Every structure is written in C-alpha cells, then in structure tokens.
C-alpha cells in the first residue's frame, strides 16, 4: 500500500517526527496606510488574537499591523517560507530582516530567543496578498540548548529544478532542504537536524502545470514522508483523487505518482528520519520532559532570553527598506 493515510488540511497541518507542525497562512490583505498598518476598520475581530479569516484575512496577534508581535521560543527550529508578500523579522539577539517573494528564513531557537514576525502592508494603493508557510522542525536533546542561530535562504539562490513529463508538461521542484537527485540544497543552520544528511530531511515545493504527471522517487527506509496538496482544483496521488486540501502519508520505499488536475497544482513535501525522543511541548517551548519545560518558563521569566532591544512589540522596518538580513554580529545582507 503506497498511501498509508490521508487527512484534510486546515490552517495548521498535521506532521510526523521530526516535524512538529506546519502553519499555512493565505491572506488577501487590503491596502495599507503609510505606517504599513491596515487601512480598513477592524470591527468584528478579536484584536490581539484574530484568526477569523474575515474578509479573507486575519490580524493574528497584531493590533494595527498583522502578524505575531514578540514572543519566545526554545528547543526547536522554524523554517518560514514566504511565497508572496513580505515578512519583517526582529529578535532579541539584535537580528532583523525583511524577506518574501520566495525567500526562506531558517531560525534555530535553541536555548531561547524572542522574535517578532510581522506582515508590513507596503502597498498603499492596492491589495497586499500574503502566502506564508511556517514549519516547526524539532531538535534532538543534544541540540535543544545550543546558541540561537538565524539564517536567510534567498529565493535567487535556492535551487529550482525544472522537469517535463512524457507529454511535455512541466514540473518545478524548489529545493528548500534535502538533496534532490544530484542537486544539493543551501545549507541549513549548523545545529539543525537537517544539517546531518543521514537524517534525510527534505522540504520541497512541487509545482505541476495542468495535467502534469510527476513520479516521486523512493527514498531511504525509515523516513517519514508526507505530501501536502494545498493549491489546485484537484490532484491524483496514485489511485486517490482529491479536490480539496489534503495530506498524504506515503510509503517512502515506493515510487509515488502525482498527477495534476486542470489547473496549476502545488504540493509541499516534508520528509525526515524521526528523532525518536519524547516530546514535551507547551506553546512556544518544546523539550523532552515536563521538568525541562518548567525550567524553560523559569528561565524566560528571569532572563527574557536577552530582553527586547526594539522600541515596538509589532516591530516593522522602514517602509522603503528592501529585502535584507541584519545578523547579530553586524553582518548585513541586502537584496
């Protein structure tokens, strides 16, 4: 049996070890004000915790600007893929950045970091659509208390492979993580579970043109492998045809056929060998035991993981700023 299980997709997607969960944000934000805030009334929303999707968008934990004001993490990693729109990052190490339109941010929280992820509405005379994936990748016990690390994978540098099926239809594979045939990905953060190739971690976005057929090659036994169909009118995985957002856990040792319907179709692949350790999680902290969780809360109360060096909780950067990454050591990347 090639398909082991299926499940419907909501805003938060189910995952398997070594992943913890994936959030998919698809928002059709209206035009912004000059300060990059929402330009329309916020009546009828639970401001501070708005996940309503009202009118096609949510404020999340933002009050004037949508997004996630400063909050802590410990014991895992975030991989943030922004396919459309922009995200502004700021953290307790003094790092900052603006990234989007295909860029990926990889952040190892390790022993603790505070950060904010805000969605600046840069367009004042048209809508501000946003599509963002945040993937939580666990860390093994040996790495849960490493120093935090923040890295940008710029869209222009991420490998993209184009293939054709027997009928000339195109398949595009964006290799965020994990070797694809002979193509190596950009390096993840150094303490990541993905940094060891033996762990067989892969994050690939597969885009199929209408009616394209793609055969996913088998991989090493013992790897958890899940396909997420999130955009398109339909997809057929092996003999199962679905018309709505669905995930498929598939047998990693088998070749898997993926056929698009009559529209462009998008599938995200997440795979990796399981860490296989106990998971104790409460909100933004992911450890191995309840005692370690309590220690995480105690440490945060005492140190604030370095405090908050920025003047706003909803930290956004200058409106005319382009894509950039400022690292804690002062290194600046600009795109």
TrEMBL record:
Q: Which cofactor does it need?
A: Fe cation
What family is this? Belongs to the pirin family.
User: Any idea which positions bind Fe cation?
Assistant: 71, 73, 115, 117
Organism from which the protein derives: Flammeovirga agarivorans
Pirin C-terminal domain location is 204-306
Q: Which GO terms describe its molecular function?
A: metal ion binding
What does the note accompanying the cofactor annotation read?
Binds 1 Fe cation per subunit.
Keyword list, A-Z: Iron, Metal-binding
Per its UniProt record, what PANTHER family does this chain match?
Answer: PIRIN (PTHR13903:SF8), PIRIN-RELATED (PTHR13903)
Stretches assigned to the Pirin N-terminal domain: 61-137
Q: Name one Pfam family in it.
A: Pirin
What is the name of the protein in this document?
A: Pirin family protein
């Amino acid at each position: 049996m090639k398909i082991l299980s299926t499940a419907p997709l909501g805003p938060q997607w189910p995952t398997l070890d070594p992943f913890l969960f994936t959030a998919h944000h698809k928002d059709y934000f209206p035009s912004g004000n000059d300060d990059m805030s929402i330009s329309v009334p916020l009546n009828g929303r639970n401001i501070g915790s708005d996940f309503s999707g009202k009118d096609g968008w949510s404020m999340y934990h933002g009050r004037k600007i949508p997004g996630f004001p400063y909050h802590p993490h410990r014991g895992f990693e975030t991989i943030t893929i922004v396919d459309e729109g922009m995200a502004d990052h700021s953290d307790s190490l003094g790092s900052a950045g603006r990234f989007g339109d295909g860029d990926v941010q990889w952040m190892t929280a390790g022993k603790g970091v505070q950060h904010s992820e805000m969605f600046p509405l840069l367009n004042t005379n048209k809508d501000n659509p946003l599509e963002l994936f945040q993937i939580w990748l666990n860390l093994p016990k040996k790495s849960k208390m490493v120093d935090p690390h923040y890295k940008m994978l710029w869209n222009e540098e991420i490998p993209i492979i184009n293939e054709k099926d027997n009928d000339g239809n195109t398949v595009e594979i964006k290799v965020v993580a994990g070797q694809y045939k002979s193509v190596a990905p950009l390096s993840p953060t150094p303490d990541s579970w993905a940094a060891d190739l033996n762990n067989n971690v892969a994050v690939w976005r597969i885009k199929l043109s209408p009616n394209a057929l793609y055969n996913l090659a088998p991989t090493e036994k013992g790897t958890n492998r899940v396909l997420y169909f999130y955009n398109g009118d339909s997809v057929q995985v092996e003999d199962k045809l679905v018309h709505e957002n669905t995930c498929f856990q598939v047998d990693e040792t088998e070749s898997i056929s993926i056929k698009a319907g009559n529209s462009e179709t998008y599938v995200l692949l997440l795979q990796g060998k399981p860490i296989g350790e106990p998971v104790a999680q409460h909100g933004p902290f992911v450890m191995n035991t309840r005692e370690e969780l309590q220690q995480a809360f105690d440490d945060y109360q005492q140190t604030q993981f370095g405090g908050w060096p920025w003047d706003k909780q909803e930290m956004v950067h200058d409106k005319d700023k382009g894509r950039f990454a400022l690292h804690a050591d002062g290194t600046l990347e600009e795109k």
